[in-house]
Write a structure and sequence with these properties.
mainly alpha; 13 helices; 82% helix; extended
Length: 438
């Protein structure tokens, strides 16, 4: 059995080699005939006359009309139809069906793919900044076009909208940072008092009586203060946090600048993208891309409007109920409200948690408020604002939000709904009509 299997393997390999040689000979024959035909056609076009044997001998040819090898601009003799130059006869071309050639090309392609993948990984932050800036530009573009329809030039409209966005960011910063700084300093000043209250509790006194917990904590604390490794790690963490803050500020500034550039050059970008499409499909491509950008911008504006309403009403509710940190919590509720499906619920849970530690009865009232408000938002506010934006089925919305959040975090969850709406538009306008005509 092994002997017959070996003979069959050898026979199969011989047959494979014979097919390779036959394919190579056929490829060389076709190449030679094509070059000969091209040379003949060129001579016919130029009106070349047949050389006499004496002329052919004088010119170094082989006596066949039109077979002499022309000189290159550098003075070297170009290869003739037979592949002969002044340095000798050219060898046979590489067999593209050989295992070595296939393996080498395959390995080279795999290395290039791996290099591109690592390059994309290093450019993840840059790509994220570009995507956020483009999304903001598409979100602000409807406002720019609205001002343009009122008679303003696009440059002036872009300036007004961009300044308004910057003013909103500055207002949020002035609203958030002073309470955070003041409340953080109060927390640091009150930390010893909170520690004394904890140590005076009965269960801590009982633990200290039985296990000397307080003395062990003090000993460990003093040991850590004198440990150089611990101090360097803490300082490294502090420096890392400061570096992260500086990077965040720099990335925010970069996003704002890119958003301004994208807003100003958006018409030119659209014309450039349309010019790359064949003329027969350019009109349809332009209409579909305009509709996708309109839906994306309208969705962003609608989501921001809903989150703003939620934040303002939450601030009023927390002010009336006396919930602490009302301004900071309202801003957090607004940012969380941008996340589809779960953002409003997360904001409500955060407010109720803070209220519970301050006064449990107030937390119950806040929970009832958010329960009522979310019903009004889902059935009254959102349908009114989103009626001209995107129409994505509920199940697809959940799946898109989960997939986007898994891939890109909060940014992916924000972009998931407009991307799903764009894909649905392409399916309805491109795929379904094509399937009907097949």
């Amino acid at each position: 059995m092994n002997l017959s299997w070996g003979k069959n393997s050898v026979r199969n390999w011989q047959d494979y080699r014979q097919r390779q040689r036959a394919a190579l000979r056929e490829s060389n024959r076709i190449r030679y005939e094509d070059e000969h035909l091209e040379r003949s056609l060129m001579n016919d076009v130029l009106g070349a006359e047949a050389e006499t044997p004496e002329e052919a001998q004088a010119s170094g040819g082989d006596g066949v009309p039109g077979t002499e090898a022309p000189d290159t601009p550098s003075g070297r003799r170009a290869p003739d139809a037979a592949g002969t130059t002044q340095f000798g006869e050219m060898g046979r071309p590489m067999n593209r069906h050989s295992p070595f050639y296939l393996g080498f090309v395959g390995a080279l392609g795999a290395l290039i793919a791996i290099g591109l993948w690592h390059s994309l990984g290093r450019l993840a932050t840059t790509l994220t900044i570009l995507v956020v800036a483009l999304f903001l530009a598409l979100a602000l573009n409807p406002l720019v076009e609205w001002l343009g329809r009122r008679g303003l030039k696009r440059s002036l409209s872009v300036g007004i909208v961009f300044l308004g966005m910057v003013a909103v960011f500055i207002l949020l910063g002035l609203l958030v940072f002073p309470p955070v700084v003041s409340q953080g300093s109060d927390l640091v000043q009150q930390a010893p008092t909170y520690m004394d209250r904890i140590l005076d509790t009965s269960w801590v006194q009982e633990l200290d009586k039985n296990y000397d917990v307080v003395d062990k904590i003090n000993e460990e604390f003093n040991k850590r203060l004198t440990d150089e490794t611990f101090i360097s790690s803490v300082l490294g963490g502090v420096l890392g946090a400061g570096r992260a803050v500086l990077n965040g500020v720099f990335q925010t500034f970069t996003i704002l600048i890119l958003t301004l550039y994208f807003l100003a050059s958006l018409p030119k970008m659209k014309r450039t993208a349309n010019s790359m499409v064949p003329a027969s499909r350019r009109n349809r491509f332009a209409q579909l891309s305009e509709e996708i950008m309109r839906r994306t911008g309208s969705y962003a504006i609608g989501q921001v409007s809903i989150a703003t309403i939620n934040a303002v009403l939450s601030y009023l509710m927390m002010t009336l109920l006396g919930i602490p940190y009302a301004a900071v919590l309202a801003v957090l509720v607004g940012f969380l409200g941008l996340i589809p499906m779960v953002g409003a619920t997360l904001g409500a849970a955060l407010v109720c948690l803070v209220a519970f530690f301050d006064e449990p009865r107030v937390a119950l009232i806040a929970a009832i408020y958010y329960l009522v408000y979310q019903q009004i938002e889902n059935y009254v506010i959102a349908p009114k604002i989103m009626q001209r934006t995107v129409s994505v089925p509920g199940a697809l919305t959940v799946v898109a939000a989960l997939a986007g959040g898994t891939l890109l975090g909060v940014l992916g969850a924000l972009l998931a709904i407009p991307v799903a709406a764009a894909l649905l538009l392409l399916v309805d306008e491109v795929l379904v009509p094509r399937q009907r005509h097949q």
